Each structure stands twice: as C-alpha cells, then as structure tokens.
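Input chain follows. Return structure tokens only.
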Amino acid sequence: MLYLVCTPIGNMKDMTYRAVEVLKEVSLILAEDTRHTLPLLTAYGISKPMLSYQKFNERARCDEVIARLQSGEDIALVTDAGTPLISDPGAVLLERVIEENLPYTLVGSSCAFVSAAVLSGFSLRTFAFGGFLPEKAGAREKYLKGFSSYAGAVAFYLSPHSFAGELESLYAAFGARRAVLVREISKKFEECVRFTLGEKPDFTEKGEYVLVIEGKEEENEKNALSVEEHIKAYMAEGMQKKDAVKRVAADRGIAKSEIYRIALTIEEE
C-alpha cells in the first residue's frame, strides 16, 4: 500500500492520530526533504528509514518504489508540509501506482473534495471545486457551462437520489471526458471508480460521492481525421482496438458506444 500522508502546514500538533500510526507502521518514508521531515518524526517518536523523494528525482526513484510496493511493502509519502500532490511531489509515483493497479490511499485530510482530487490521479496543477449541482435543469446547465472549458480537474458532490440525472447533465456539459467517482473516503471500503462520462460506472450506490472530472485537454490534431482513421492511427501506435476506442471517444468528447460501432468494421492486423 502507498500511503499519501498529510503533514501540518504550521503547528506540529495538527498531525492526525492515523497519520502518526501509519508512519510508525510503514517500512519506508519518502520525504520531499528528509532534513525537514526528521523533526516531525522525532516529535512523535517515529524512527523509520527515509528516502529523498522530490521533484528533481521523482522519476528516477519511481521504479525502485514501485518494485518495493509490488514486493509487499507499505510505503508512505510525505511532503514538507500539507497534502502530497497539491503543488508538491507525488503525481509521477501515483500515476504509476494506478497503472500497476496497486493499492493506495490518502491519510490525514479533512476535506472531501481535496482528498478526492488527490485520489483521482489527475493533474492538479490547477483544479476547481464545483460543489453540489443546482437542482433545476436550466440552472444546472448554465452552472456547468462555466466549468466545461476549464483546463484543470473539477470536483463535484453528487447525491444518491439524483445521481443518474446529474451524470447525464455532466456528460452533456463535458462530453466523454475521463472521470473518477470517489466514495467512502478514508473508510474501510474506500473506492475510486474510473470511467468515462457517458458510461454508467459500476460502484456501490451508498453514501454521497465526489466526482472528479479531468481538465479539458488541448484540441487533438487527430480530431481532423475521420473516426475510422482516428482509431487506426492509435492502433498503428500499438494500442489495442478497445483502448483506441476509449482514447478516440475522449479526444472527441462523444460516447464510447458511438465510436465502438465504427470500430467493429476495422480489422486488427
């Protein structure tokens, strides 16, 4: 398990009980600056091996950390202060953890949308909070229009009783963009469900959810191709057809099912 551990931004006593417990139990602590982190660990009686993990070496360290996680080690990542990935190192490692389907969680945050944004694995160079959506369709459409062209990730709070309708509104506003549905944050059954808007995510329909939508990408030059040519272009780069279909749907902001019908006519070589 990779633990992304929040640390105090000022008063050292702002550490949570669980954060201290995790740091005492892991086999390795990745620290942005080991000299900065040492006084915090000392204050809480934590004596664990530390390894420098900052923006200048995070790619170089990544393979080693992934290998250790795959071998069964529990590892914590802390930054000098605050929440990892929020203008701090960790994005490169989390992207690899998600690719390798390794378990991870965030420890010590008390803000649901910030936690969900970190857990999503999307770029957080800039991100926005959309909160709960307006109940009336017209107001909701107008509200979402203000976020649809935003370059950063956007987090929304969704309710179970209106979930299906809200997903339809989000798809209408954002198109077939990648999204992560996060529920039970920091609890035993925490889950991050990855899907593309326009699809129905497979998840446990209990509690309230945070939905994080990936920021708008720059226009892809492949969009000038026909859909069939677009799919073939990704397949020529080595993608399987199903992965090419997902990418084309995301590029064009349309439902994957529409792309899939065209893909059926394409034979894989």
